[in-house]
Design goal:
Structural class: mainly beta
Distance between the termini: 39 Å
Largest sheet: 5 strands, antiparallel
Number of strands: 20
Low-confidence stretches: 1-13
Strand content: 35-45%
Shape: globular
Order of helices and strands: HEEEEEEEEEEEEEEEEEEEE
Number of helices: 1
């Protein structure tokens, strides 16, 4: 009895001692990867039927290989307006607090309650509490369903919310206390930046002064879910699709998409953290979280990411 309990406790702390994909067990999708100090964190969607998507777990690692699970960091118990379909968390650290953005309720029109909310905590592992007591975005703007939020910090310290389903993507500048938005010079709040092929799952980062905008294409339930990208000189674009760089490998897995990017501070090392569906699975929610390295050519173009079973080698994060 007691040895079993000890073994289970150890397993919950060290989920994967060797480099491999998936990086931790369980069905998890839409992973947000980010580094806080010397630790990498992944905040994924709990992959299950919508009515069972009522909470978020988080995972942490100091080497991208051994992961610690932090259970139930946020749930519908704390977010009273969230009833189902809690999706695609995105997180930032600001003024000593951690702000977790998330979608909930999968609203289909402006009359339904739900959209994009924010939770706040003093530590990356929570516990998180509702920050606004209501959604930050609860309406369709420019045709974009308020889901799949990504919070981008620009070089000048400004924060932008980039989001959208239903093949539309918006960007809006967040105000200083993250309670609303700052209108652009022309008075608009939500500017559409949808590139060709966009479906959902936006992500953005800066490398060598260029803005890389990435998104998911195809249907998330099918084998052809994938990731494409564009580049521009501004977070507002214009963004012209360049290429698809993450997709299924019939020998490895299908449905490889809805990713984020981990950048190792002070180094030109970049990793795609994404979800995919094992070849043995056909259920739409049988999705697992994986990491593979991203590489760039001499022009700064992203080379196709090879999805692997081996994953990445241990890398000390400093």
């Amino acid at each position: 009895m007691f040895p079993q309990i000890i073994a289970l406790a150890m397993a919950s702390t060290c989920l994967n001692a060797n480099a491999s994909n998936p990086v931790f067990p369980g069905w998890y999708a839409d992973p947000e990867g980010i580094i806080f100090e010397n630790t990498c964190w992944i905040y994924p969607t709990f992959s299950a039927p919508y009515d069972k998507q009522l909470h978020f777990d988080a995972f942490s690692s100091t080497d991208l290989v051994k992961w610690t699970k932090h259970e139930n960091i946020l749930s519908t118990k704390e977010i009273k307006w969230a009833k189902r379909a809690m999706w695609a968390p995105s997180i930032i650290r600001k003024d000593g607090k951690y702000y977790l953005f998330f979608g909930a309720n999968d609203i289909q029109n402006d009359q339904q309650e739900g959209g994009i909310g924010i939770a706040v905590a003093d530590k990356p592992e929570g516990p998180y509490k509702d920050y606004l007591g209501k959604p930050l975005v609860d309406k369709f703007h420019n045709g974009a369903q308020p889901i799949d939020q990504y919070v981008f910090k620009d070089a000048d310290g400004s924060h932008y919310l980039i989001y959208g389903g239903w093949r539309h993507c918006n960007i809006a500048k967040l105000n200083a206390d993250l309670t609303g938005f700052v209108p652009q010079a022309d008075g608009t709040v939500f500017k559409e930046i949808t590139p060709q092929g966009y479906v959902e799952g936006p992500c953005m980062f800066i490398r060598n002064g260029k803005y890389y905008f990435m998104w998911s294409e195809g249907g998330w339930t099918g084998p052809n879910y994938s990731v494409a990208y564009a580049m521009a000189d501004s977070p507002f674009g214009p963004f012209t699709r360049i290429a698809k760089i993450i997709q299924q490998d019939p020998a490895i897995a299908t449905g490889a998409g809805h990713h984020s990017v981990i950048h190792i501070p002070g180094k030109d090392r970049w990793f795609a953290v994404y979800h995919r569906r094992p070849l043995t699975e056909t259920d739409a929610n049988s999705r697992e979280t994986c990491i593979d390295e991203m590489h760039f050519d001499e022009k700064g173009l992203i080379q196709p990411v090879k999805i692997t079973n081996e994953g990445v080698k241990a890398l000390e994060i400093k």
